[in-house]
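Hi team,

As requested, here is the filled-out complex form for the zinc ion run. I kept the field names the same as last time so the parser does not choke. Let me know if anything looks off before we queue the next batch.

— J.
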Amino acid sequence: MLVEGDGVFDLERASDGRLGAGARAALAGHAVLHEVAAGLVGQQPDRTLADVTLGPPQPDPWQVFAIGLNYRGHAAETGKALPEAPLVFTKFPGCLTGPVASVEMASDTTDYEAELVVVIGDTVRNVSAADAWNVVAGLMIGQDLSDRELQNAGERPQFSLAKSHDGYGPTGPLIVSPDLLDDPDALEVRCFVNGEQRQADTTHNLIFSVPVLVEYLSRMMTLHAGDLIFTGTPEGVGLATGNYLRSGDVVRTTITGLGELTTTLR
Ligand code: ZN
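And here is what came back:
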């Protein structure tokens, strides 16, 4: 579906069949998406946002990258040195859930991490940082929920496993095209637990910016339309203080221009 204001448009119908209903195919046609969106002004929507239950905007990416220690303050609070190159792990796509999720905690050391998530819109290799925004279909909010006990079990960190329990990848509420944002390189990320602000920073402070991450990852492998990049979290996570999430907690994340995401733990 395509959202314009409060109006929800069926993608297949609005595009006269040029785009299918699936998110990945639509993201691969993001140039067509822009054409279709431009033609929607004044059109009657199929439904309104209030009438739909949103799931993960891109539920079936081929690859989900996530970046560790990408804000100075967060690196400092974990006692780790700043990485010289992006520190990359994966969240398995099965963990993805929508913007108003109820997530069962897999451990009593479950932690929140508010993040900007990049949605790739082309199948590309070796993209330069200067061209990177052209291959980004959109941005959304993500929470990189993390099971700290499992993450730190054993000799090497178990990032991918500990961050991929069922529901540990809330995303949404919508994928927003970067051209709709005043400055996609400087978005305020905030995270609240039960209304109390725990994280606040701007993506302007990312150690490895969105363009640099796209360049780096596309040098390593092909990036596919619909792939996701969780770009890392600001300081203020529970790991630093032992203040982990408890059943009933509500984690709300906001990012400039991208709306908000609310997860309830149980
Ligand atoms: Zn993270």
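Two things worth flagging: The first strand starts at residue 2 and ends at 4. The chain has a mean pLDDT of 95.

Thanks,
J.
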